[in-house]
Amino acid sequence: MAGPYTECAPAAVGQKRQQFGSRFLSDPARVFHHNAWDNVEWSEEQAAAAERKVRENSTQRVCQEKQVDYEINAHKYWNDFYKIHENGFFKDRHWLFTEFPELAPGQSQDHLEDLPSDKRSEAPERRTSEDGPGLKIEQHKCSSNSLECETQTAPVGENVTQKFSHLEICADEFPGSSATYRILEVGCGVGNTVFPILQTNNDPGLFVYCCDFSSTAIELVQTNSAYDPCRCFAFVHDLCDEDQSYPVPTSSLDIIILIFVLSAVVPDKMQKAINRLSRLLKPGGMMLLRDYGRHDMAQLRFKKGQCLSENFYVRGDGTRVYFFTQDELDTLFTTAGLEKVQNLVDRRLQVNRGKQLTMYRVWIQCKYRKPLLSSAGSVAPAPDA
Ligand SMILES: C[S@@+](CC[C@H](N)C(=O)[O-])C[C@H]1O[C@@H](n2cnc3c(N)ncnc32)[C@H](O)[C@@H]1O
């Protein structure tokens, strides 16, 4: 069932961290010699088998009543998820800086180079070690227009963060308003992207915003010992809620990052969510995304009765996932007024050497930029929500 393999130039362990796509399987007999192979080409038979599997698992749709429940209570299903897993489920992703150097421009990643590429994790997956959450209640209070802060004990969670997300944002009175480089992560979960950014990007002008509609996840971010309110602002926010504003003005962000979050949103709400985010970017600012691609192993594993709509499924725990094509993402971003910098598919063969299992993963990675100027010479207008 394995497809043809391209020639290889293996990434040496201990060498400078490579971008995805650096270890190619030339000899199928060596498949169990490493944990992962890059840019695996699928044969026609394999693609056809995947197509059949999807048709099969999509024949029976979840009933309307349950669909409404999964939509209305989406944040509750994710809260339950984080109550069970706390921050032991998703791995920190240091590969982020190789793929998205925009997250730490001009910073050395030397301290991250000793991790073999085998150990990189791209999709939300279970950790091998169950690290504790390292909860700490001491918080810092930042003045709203400065990066300076004083230490104090503050309550954590929804009450505090909700207050901010309903504020009318005034151009020079918002968290991190004096920062010179602003990054927002949407659907941040427990901070597996945010904390590596804060650790790696030492730019004194950096300020990182992160939000999630799971108040449980945000509480875990805020109470993590690495959470520094002088450099970071975590808040509860539903990216599909049109009535909820972000705590930053329009055209104020340099980077917006979406890691395996857009796939959790019901497809007919994706466009408006991306439009709203696009308005927050500065001209020249970038939206970065990594998410599930069509026919990823996770899609093929769904059973009949878990399909909500085409390529959109519900997991056993009530959380949902969509599987994108490159074209669909291109349409979402360009309709939001952004221009393509990168839109690639990462086909990877992961191997469980112990169990002699092969897993074909498909991820899509995108970078889209807000144009500096419209063709008329003025700053490009953002699309209506
Ligand atoms: C698969 S997890 C990924 C978490 C994190 N980005 C990571 O890579 O570890 C998806 C996250 O998106 C969040 N999410 C889903 N729908 C959302 C929405 N409408 N608004 C905000 N967050 C959402 C979930 O609570 C969850 O934390």
From TrEMBL:
GO biological process: methylation; tRNA processing
The protein, known as: tRNA N(3)-cytidine methyltransferase
Domain Methyltransferase type stretches: 184-286
Region annotation Disordered: where it falls in the sequence: 106-137
Similarity comment text for this entry: Belongs to the methyltransferase superfamily. METL family.
Gene Ontology terms: cellular component: cytoplasm
Keyword Transmembrane helix set for record: no
High-level lineage: Eukaryota, Metazoa, Chordata, Craniata, Vertebrata
Biased composition annotated in UniProt, kind: Basic and acidic residues: 110-130
Localization in the cell: Cytoplasm
Catalytic activity: cytidine(32) in tRNA(Thr) + S-adenosyl-L-methionine = N(3)-methylcytidine(32) in tRNA(Thr) + S-adenosyl-L-homocysteine + H(+); cytidine(32) in tRNA(Arg)(CCU) + S-adenosyl-L-methionine = N(3)-methylcytidine(32) in tRNA(Arg)(CCU) + S-adenosyl-L-homocysteine + H(+)
GO molecular function annotations of the record: tRNA (cytidine-3-)-methyltransferase activity
Keywords from the UniProt entry: Acetylation, Cytoplasm, Methyltransferase, S-adenosyl-L-methionine, Transferase, tRNA processing
The organism's place on the tree of life at top rank: Eukaryota
Gene3D superfamilies in alphabetical order: Vaccinia Virus protein VP39
EC number: 2.1.1.-
Function: S-adenosyl-L-methionine-dependent methyltransferase.
